[in-house]
Amino acid sequence: MITRRGFTLLEVLIVVIIIGILAAIALPQYIKTIEKARSAEAVTNIGYIRTSLDRYWYENDYSFAGVTLPTDGSQCTLDIDNPNAVKNKLYDTYSISGFSAPPAGRAYTILATRTAPSGTIYTVEWVQESNVKGTLYRSANLGGPVKP
After folding, report:
1. Which of 36, 49, 59, 137 is most buried, by the most CB atoms less than 10 A from its CB?
2. Residue 147: inside a domain, yes or no?
């Protein structure tokens, strides 16, 4: 009696096809998860900028006059190192805008932007609407919440 060991060509092809289908499903989710993890850098840096902006606002008679965060990496007027000056950072630029004028409440926007090698743009944004309300937004490709 002859016994054969091993797999037939059909069995090997079925296994390869199944692995290919699983990889096609898993790869996009893996990339999305990696980008979400990379956005943690932006969230942390935005937190430092927020704290510094709030301190500046209180120390300068409730005014943002003179605040700078140059995107070229030069020295900023806040009491932190400019995150745009860091080499090997994941997010390309950090910017601040939309400052309220005194005596209005504290309001501003901080935006972190990343352009992936594929050309996809990812953003993380903090919008400080008043003295007590602010919201963190992420671009839709990071899983939101998206700014309305």
Report:
1. 49
2. no
